[in-house]
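Exercise 7. Given the encoded structure of a 403-residue chain, write a plausible sequence.
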């Protein structure tokens, strides 16, 4: 989890009640206050959980970057007395020392002690009851001359015990360099105009990219007879979009929330302008959460300790599921074969003014293929982004990925 921009210039004092969802609130203007911001979600997933701590900053700050809260003591304590301690890795990001997940019937509270001795905590919170059945699927859409794929999700709790939901959507897609070669040209560092071919040691053909979608998405069934979320669209992607050119994976995390947590997120949603992070720069004020200052309960702290049950579903879409035999869309409009002579020669059409040796040394071209024409060896090269997928993603294959 990375820090995202946060600032607060006008503080909105919002009273949340949980007999109904959210009551009216009054707006009061106040000067900037240096407050602790806590992002803490505990789920039933057995994993290393993360908690993020930062400080607010004024709107006129030189850099709109969240200030990490470093060197804090962070732990989650269950009502059986078990302590789950967290350690700081990246500044302000604290990860549990062991993998664990929340268990039904056990209460959990958050405890934080900052480096300057301030202490923060919460009441005990339990996993919400739920018996959810959820589904993620895709279908083809048609819109005039265009078509593509639309992803949907729906759910049902036959016991009607879930009711309050928060969603996270994550798309991951495969990237293939269109003019990749297993070889690379290497410029001899000590001999000008001397080149050699070597097998690549870095993966440059296949990469992946993951993107968060849609910001904060909430649903609730508290006013309906059945705990059913009808199918709704997650996203639609045109067949012309290179994201689905090969293989695309959609992950849906559906969190079952308490009524209190839902009310909190609902208020944040109104002021986050649909941003991915509800603590973004678009939040105009202070929203009362469930975390308190142990020694000075009247002091403000920003954040919410969310104990929720998550249901995760992942599906895969292949371009040929709908478009068998068709030309795959390409992110790059031009990936030419460029002809250059190897020893000190310039490109005949004037695309480059430097020798191939210089271009290779600068990383300005990628090798495609070699053809021998006596007495001079002839290389074909292309633009770097056409031969190296790392320009658009990462060459680290996700653990979850299935071909």
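Solution.
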């Amino acid at each position: 989890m990375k820090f995202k921009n946060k600032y607060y210039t006008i503080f909105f004092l919002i009273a949340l009640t949980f007999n109904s969802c959210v009551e009216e609130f009054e707006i009061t203007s106040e000067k900037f206050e240096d407050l602790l911001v806590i992002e803490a979600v505990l789920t039933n997933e057995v994993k290393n959980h993360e908690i993020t701590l930062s400080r607010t900053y004024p709107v006129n700050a030189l850099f709109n970057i969240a200030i990490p809260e470093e060197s804090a003591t962070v732990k989650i304590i269950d009502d059986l007395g078990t302590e789950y301690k967290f350690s700081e890795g990246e500044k302000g990001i604290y990860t549990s020392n062991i993998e664990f997940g929340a268990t039904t019937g056990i209460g959990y509270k958050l405890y934080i002690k900052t480096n300057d001795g301030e202490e923060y905590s919460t009441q005990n919170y339990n996993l919400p009851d739920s018996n959810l059945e959820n589904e993620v699927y895709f279908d083809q859409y048609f819109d005039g001359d265009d078509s593509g794929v639309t992803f949907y999700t729906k759910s049902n709790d036959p016991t009607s015990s879930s009711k309050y939901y928060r969603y996270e959507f994550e798309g991951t897609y495969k990237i293939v360099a269109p003019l990749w070669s297993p070889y690379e040209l290497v410029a001899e560092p000590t001999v000008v105009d001397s080149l050699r071919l070597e097998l690549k040691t870095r993966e440059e053909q296949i990469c992946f990219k993951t993107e968060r979608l849609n910001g904060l998405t909430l649903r609730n069934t508290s006013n309906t007879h059945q705990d059913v979320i009808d199918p709704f669209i997650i996203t639609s992607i045109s067949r012309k979009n290179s994201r689905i050119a090969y293989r695309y994976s959609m992950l849906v995390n559906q969190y079952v929330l308490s009524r209190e947590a839902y009310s909190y997120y609902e208020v944040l949603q109104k002021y986050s302008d649909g941003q991915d992070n509800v603590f973004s720069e678009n939040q105009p004020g202070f929203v009362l959460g469930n975390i308190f200052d142990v020694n000075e309960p009247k002091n403000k702290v920003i954040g919410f300790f969310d104990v929720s049950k998550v249901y995760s579903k992942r599906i895969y879409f292949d371009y040929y599921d709908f478009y068998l035999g068709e030309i795959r869309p390409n992110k790059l409009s031009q990936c030419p074969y460029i002809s250059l002579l190897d020893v000190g020669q310039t490109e005949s059409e004037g695309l480059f003014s430097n020798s191939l040796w210089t271009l290779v040394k600068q990383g300005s071209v990628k090798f495609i293929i070699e053809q021998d024409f006596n007495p001079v060896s002839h290389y074909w090269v292309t633009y770097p982004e056409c031969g190296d997928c790392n320009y658009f993603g990462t060459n680290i294959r996700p653990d979850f990925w299935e071909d």
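Remark. Helices lie at 259-272, 356-362, 384-387. Students should compare their own answers with the one above.
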